[in-house]
Amino acid sequence: MTTAVISALAGAAREAAHTGPGECGGCGTDESVLAERDDGVVVRHGPAVAKAHAADTDPAAHRVRIAVAADPRLAGILLAPLPLSARETHGRPVTAWPYGLPVDPRDPGAAPWEETAVLLARLHRVDPAALPGPLPPARGPAKVVRALARMRARAGRHPYAAVVEAACARLPAWARGAAPAPRRRLCHGDLHLGQLVRHPAPGGPWLLIDVDDLGIGDPTWDLARPAAWYAAGLLPREVWRRFLGAYTAARGPAVDPGEDPWRWLDVPARALTVQTAALALVRAAAERREPDEDDLAVIGACDRIASLPVHPDGTAPV
Questions:
Q1: Buried b / exposed e along 31-68 (16+ C-beta atoms within 10 A)
Q2: CA 299 to chain centre
Q3: What's the superkingdom here (predicted)?
């Protein structure tokens, strides 16, 4: 099935790159597979990529998310999709996008933390009522639930799994997807540095990509991964301060610059710690190894969370 999906995506990428089916004309550019996972397969042809989304993608929510990415109100924030005639292959939705240069993982000192923060602030300030809808919920909390399910299925007997479960039990219902988020803003839903590209590449502005989890939710969720990394000792204090400072300077609404930001960030950061630790155990089990140093850092953070009182469901008012 994956071979058939990749073949279909190669044709879609050629179409998107050359404005129409059959117009490649032997341009001399080969297709390359950029990602091949259950939740997305991505194939590149020259200046375009085609993506087959997860097989369990909700069709209505997917259409709204793609329409939002194409909306002019999101220009300069989200990468906009390219026209494409075929919208599905082998039961999976297909989209096409301009190719952009990703963040270079070999150069962490050049990571665009401030640019990411400004993009998030701009995204969170967009009025959801002015966008195509109905907007689905941002899928941040749902990803915590999915990560735990994967851990239980693939690494549930590992001794550290109990630590992750105990930390999860300290989360309020909304952070486990069991209740609506306390605040409602347009959110990316799965923010990390892999969700940015430069376009036009190279030297162009950074843009957010991957709208599979975009929707209405608590905007602190989009800050939660770097917050969790900082709390676990994986992100230097200075980088965290630069990121948060850029977000507040750009009038991001997730935190109040006059108050302690952890009033808002505490619960989402705990939830992302649980998610990260659960997936770390899944990866370690798949690779038949024990958790590495970074894995142990987030598992240790889960151990600290598990020792805290159960967090109340209520949060600070909007």
A1: beebeeeeebbbbbbbbbbbbbbeeebeeebbebbbeb
A2: 21
A3: Bacteria
Residues 217 and 244 in one domain: yes
Asked if residue 124 is part of any domain, the answer here is: yes
Nearest to 13 by CA among 98, 102, 100: 98
| Same structural domain, 91 and 150 | no
Contacting residues for 242 by C-beta, under 8 A, at least 6 apart: 113, 114
Q: How many C-beta atoms lie closer than 10 Å to residue 141's C-beta? A: 26
| 30 or 215: which leads in pLDDT | 215
Mean of all residue pLDDT scores within the chain: 92
pLDDT at 20 over 80: no
Whether residue 54 is contained in a domain is answered as yes
CA distance 130 to 127: 6
**Could you tell me which residues come within 8 angstroms of residue 310 by beta carbon, excluding any fewer than 6 positions away?**
169, 170
**Residue 234: which domain range?**
108-306
Domain count, the chain: 2
The two structure tokens encoding residue 46:
């020259």
For 87, counting Cβ atoms within 10 Å of its Cβ (0-12 exposed, 13-18 middle, 19+ buried), the class is middle
According to the model, what pLDDT value does residue 309 have?
80
Per residue in 166-179, pLDDT (tens digit) is 999 999 888 887 88
Query: Among 49-53, 88-92, 240-244, where is mean pLDDT lowest?
Result: 88-92
Digit-coded pLDDT (tens) for 137-155? 999 999 999 999 999 999 9
We report the CATH number of the domain holding residue 124 as: 3.90.1200.10
67 lies in the same domain as 147: no
> Checking DSSP bridges between strand 88-89 and strand 92-98, what pairing results, if any?
antiparallel
